[in-house]
Write a structure and sequence with these properties.
Layout lengths: L1 H8 L29 E3 L8 E5 L1 H11 L8 E5 L2 E5 L2 E2 L4 E5 L3 E5 L8 E3 L8 E3 L3 E4 L2 E7 L2 E4 L3 H9 L10 E4 L2 E11 L4 E6 L2 E11 L8 E3 L5 E11 L5 E3 L4 H7 L3 E12 L4 E5 L7 E21 L7 E22 L17 E22 L6 E21 L1 E9 L23 H8 L2
Parallel strand pairs: 1-3, 2-4, 3-6, 4-7, 5-10, 6-11, 7-12, 10-13, 11-14, 12-14, 13-15, 14-16, 15-17, 16-18, 18-20, 19-21, 20-22, 21-22, 22-23, 23-24, 24-25, 25-26
Antiparallel strand pairs: 8-9
GO biological process, one term: carbohydrate metabolic process
InterPro entries: GH28_Enzymes (IPR051801), Glyco_hydro_28 (IPR000743), PbH1 (IPR006626), Pectin_lyas_fold (IPR012334), Pectin_lyase_fold/virulence (IPR011050)
Family: Belongs to the glycosyl hydrolase 28 family.
Length: 449
């Protein structure tokens, strides 16, 4: 059985082969699905899958052993059915971590089993708990399975967070730092302490066919957070979490400005999203390194506080630009679209109040919605208004027909309820090829994508 798993299910040489620079091609790029030539089971390292025995050392020893195969085509660590309790451990390059159907990796709820690490340089404040699954400067990593499960057992962390008794930031389930060629697929994620999947400073990341869920009362638990990363695809997945389901970020205030690594070339598609206290898709508010060239399409967002959110504030610097969001179905959403220039705390009191963020060239089209509270709320910054906000073919059934607008400009075409005058004020910024981005080629012609 294990040999079959190696040949049929393991992936190696995970290479995203880029075509054009247009981010809409990222999910169409393909992986080279060669088999791993070596495989071991976690059972070979003394692991016990009873949900009680702590297997941290077994996972660490297994990964250490598999490092020796990095220059021999890589290897797979096979996790069979069972409940495998563990603290945090690090992955290695040219590795497949495979969770069989019925296998659950359980995060230990014992705070003493979690090391602390320094904050990320683009965030620059304090320490934080190491994540459950970690990787730093890795190449060619696959985390997959036959719908195996990661359970963060986050309830105890949520209690500590809400009571203010945590000394450090909560851990994530998966965090990969400065790594390249990453595939995460065919898995379920439950009850993360904080973030489920956090690629930061990464390139060529493909996340597909994952189910991410937490309970409604999970405080500020996020689904996937691409952070100062490029060439990212997230597709064919369902995410139901307490806060934002997918949140694009790129650093915090002066630390993100100085680190200067944007999140760019991102494609999100075919997603079912639910966020009772957050947003289906969000940009920021930590976006000081910049966020650009993002294509979002084919979304269903239901029972959420906000559908699509753009968040920033004075002192962030950076930019959010060249964003296209299309084919979105909204149901039972408090506010369909929010763009807020006054959201988010600061890393410390050393931020530059004159570092003004720029939000521009955002196209949203083909939205439908029922059970919507407010159609949209756009509040830019006086010294740095949001510009070229372009709406097309958007039809929302709202309980309030008002749009709230200040310090914003753009244009709308075929939008109901009728938007505010500020979003009808600047047609030249939204027209290309004779229409309001009627076809992709026109949009690319304007944005030079």
């Amino acid at each position: 059985m294990q040999v079959a798993l190696v040949w049929l299910l393991a992936f190696t040489n995970v290479l995203l082969i880029r075509g054009e620079s247009n981010d809409a091609t990222i999910c169409k790029d393909h992986f080279m699905l060669d088999p791993r030539p070596h495989s071991v089971s976690i059972l070979e390292f003394g692991a016990v899958g009873d949900g009680k025995y702590l297997n941290t050392l077994a996972f660490q020893n297994a990964i250490f052993y598999l490092k020796s195969f990095a220059d021999k085509g890589g290897a797979q660590l096979y996790v069979p059915p069972g409940k495998w309790l563990t603290g945090s451990f690090n992955l290695t390059s040219h590795l497949t971590l495979f969770l069989e159907k019925g296998a659950t990796i359980l995060a230990s709820p014992d705070q003493s089993h979690w090391d602390t690490v320094s904050s990320l340089p683009s965030y620059g404040r304090g320490k934080r708990y190491r994540s459950l699954i970690n990787g730093d400067n890795l190449l060619d990593v696959v985390i997959t399975g036959d719908n195996g499960t990661f359970d963060g057992q986050g309830a105890v962390w949520w209690e500590w967070f809400e009571s203010g008794t945590l000394n450090y930031s909560r851990p994530h389930i998966i965090e990969l730092v400065s790594s390249k060629n990453i595939l995460i697929s065919n898995l379920t994620f439950l009850n993360a302490p904080s973030v489920n999947i956090h690629p930061v400073y990464c390139s060529h990341v493909h996340i597909r066919k994952v189910l991410i869920e937490t309970t409604v009362d999970s405080p500020y638990v996020l689904g996937v957070v691409p952070d100062s990363s490029d060439n990212v695809c997230i597709e064919d997945s369902t995410i139901n979490v307490g806060h934002d389901t997918i949140s694009l970020k790129s650093g915090w205030d002066q630390y993100g400005i100085n680190y200067n690594r944007p999140t760019t070339n991102v494609h999100l598609r075919n997603l079912s999203l639910k966020s009772p206290t957050g947003a289906g898709i969000s940009f920021g508010s930590e976006m000081s390194g910049g966020i650009s060239d993002v294509t979002v399409e084919l979304l269903t967002i239901q029972s959420s506080h906000v559908g699509v959110a753009f968040r920033t504030t004075r002192g962030r610097g950076g930019y959010i630009r060249n964003i296209t969001i299309s084919d979105v179905i909204l149901s039972r959403v408090d506010t369909a679209i929010v763009a807020d220039g006054h959201t988010g705390s600061h890393a410390d009191d050393k931020y530059d109040r004159d570092a003004l963020p720029v939000v521009t060239r955002v196209l949203m089209r083909n939205f439908t919605g029922e059970g919507i509270g407010l159609a949209g709320k756009f509040t830019g910054i006086g010294e740095s208004p949001f510009t070229s906000i372009c709406l097309s073919d958007i039809h929302l059934q709202t309980s309030s027909e008002s749009w709230v607008c200040s310090n914003v400009s753009g244009f709308s075409d075929d939008v109901s309820p009728e938007p505010c005058q500020e979003l009808m004020s600047s047609p030249s910024s939204c027209f290309a090829g004779g229409g309001i981005y009627g076809v992709d080629t026109a949009a690319r012609g304007y944005y030079s994508w």
